Amino acid sequence: MWFRQLSFYRLDESSCPDLDTLSTALAKKPFNPCSGLDWSSEGWVPPAAHADGPVLGCKGNLLVALKREDKVLPAGVIRDYLDAKVQEIEDKELRKVGRKEKQALKEQITDDLLPRAFTRSGRLSAFLDTQRRWLMIDTGTASRAETLIGELRDALPPFPAALPRTEIAPHTAMTDWLLAGVAPGGFELDADCELKAQGEEGAVIRCSRQDLTADEVQQHLKGGKQATKLGLVWRERIRFVLTDTLQLKRLQFLDVLQEEASQAGDDPASLAEATLLLMSAELGELVDELVEALGGLQNAG
């Protein structure tokens, strides 16, 4: 259940449903496997093994999971079947198969193969922190996050959820922290960063397992490069990489947190709820402190 990446969105009061409201709404679109000529299928599934509904709730935190299944039908397979069919027609009827006929044959072959195609599936977890008014999504990919938000909007229209905009741009703050050799508040510089020169063709420098206060890093910064990614550790509890798009990648909940969760119960239900409660509390505090370190939200409400 521990998130590995994080995209977070600001909610307003109208987009903070209670457990029953959200459960009823999501239950109307459960996941069903791809069937027939469907290329893909998407729907809500229980977010934990013991859950019997689409939402796991714990003290104002509502955990959900969106599952997607896609048919896998490689273009090369279709092409092989098409070539064989075209060759069969030309040999049997002694004529050339034209472009339009080839296209029709390709569509027919695709329809014939699709029900027998392999499938691949994945799930995307998220939780609504209704007290702090954050939507936390376990992804560092904007398109995947928007897909989940779109499904929530379909279930609970209009479901306002907005990307947070901070007074200080993340790349500006990260660059300043590196120049100062120290991060603010409960944050500490870790050992990874990405620096980029201005312009679309600007040079990119990536540092890994590097002392970020070293002279070589400072020289790149003084030469005009800006930080686009920065490794940070929060209160010796969570390690992550902050990006210039305000996403948290390579989330790592340190041992002290996982030990706290494991001590809360030894059955799946209590362990899942303890993990959700601990993870949501820690990520909520981390995000609040991060936003504060970036000057707060623009037009905060």
UniProtKB/TrEMBL annotation:
Keywords: Cytoplasm, DNA recombination
Cellular compartment(s): Cytoplasm, Nucleoid
Coiled coil stretches, renumbered: none
Major location category of this protein: cytoplasm
A Pfam family reported for this protein in Swiss-Prot or TrEMBL: RdgC
NCBIfam families: PRK00321.1-5 (NF001464)
Function: May be involved in recombination.
Family named by the database record: Belongs to the RdgC family.
Protein name in the entry: Recombination-associated protein RdgC
Naturally occurring in which organism (per UniProt): Crenobacter oryzisoli
Gene name tied to this protein: rdgC
